[in-house]
Amino acid sequence: MRTEKLEYLDGLKGIGCVAVFLTHFVFAFYYAAYSLTGDAVNTNSGIEITIGKTPLNLLYSGNSAVCLFLVFSGFVLCLSYFRTRLKAAAWKRYFRLMPMILMINTVIFVLMSLGCYRNDEAAILTKSTVWFAGFNQFQPNFLQMLGESLAGCFLFGTNNYNGVLWTMPYLFSGALVVYLAAYLVGENPFRYVVYLVMLLAAVKTDIYFAGIFLGFAASDFFCTRQKGMELWQRFWLLPLGSFVLGVYLSYPSIGSDMSGTIYGILPSAYTTLYHLAGAALLLAGVLGLPGLQRFFGAKPFRFLGKVSYSLYLLHFPVIATFSCWLFLSLYGKMSYGLLTALDFVCTLALVLILSALSRKYLEPVSGRLTAGILKTFADRKKE
Q: Which of 125, 31, 162, 132 is nearest to 329 (CA)?
């Protein structure tokens, strides 16, 4: 059983989260990089469309980033089970996720009440009205926000206040499913058949759950098949090929016909399937290549991994308020490219600062809440 600390997984998780941030910024200010249509172009050369048809789109492919995040989360979630059989982790999951969502949604409620969301104005100038204009353009209601934060986002993916919360059912309910599966099948030699059934059921019902399940299966193999992992690492061309193929499967998220590009041989109807397979292949490649592990385990990437949850929840409200305010304040005073570059640097700096502060001062609330509940139960058992 493996027990070493896998710091490079923090780095991978952080990179996946930054890719989500890049996605939302690019979609807001260079929507043509996603839509691949000329009417949304903001450069003279239309280079955003050219980039959008190459694997470089992986840098801001939101769907790919979400799939990466789900696969990596499934992998990390199950390490605790395969290493320690930590059965209490399931119920702790809710109290790990909920307090931060509630606190940030409360801030969003205040910002909306004060009229700080200016994405509808900015979207007209950035040619992203189809995607960017509609977010948070309603009268905020405190009870509605509370319901979304405490239950709605976890059960139904309700995301009226913070658009990124649509992934919560996968990060929460998906985690409960894999904990239950791990508890029921343990290390039964036929458990991989169960994993296959889970994957097929997810593909037929809600494909994003497959990301968590793929990470779960990979975690099992990594922790319980040491000889298999040693062979995988010894024949390094295999994990290298896996990583390269994973990058290639960054099919443009718009899912349109890619004839004439390197994606032309792939049918356009299976975009999410490509992204999930690509995420699993990227993970497999990194697990087999020590060089990539050292790269993704570098200190800057580990930092991103540590603040990834706060960054994930905070970045979109910052883009829809601060980024839009700065853009509208300086629009027409410099070129579009220079303005968006300045806006990006300022936004990234603000998001990282807020995420670091949140990690230090807000995220510990979850730990204290969980510890308090544990103490309460322990005290009742003594009575």
A: 125
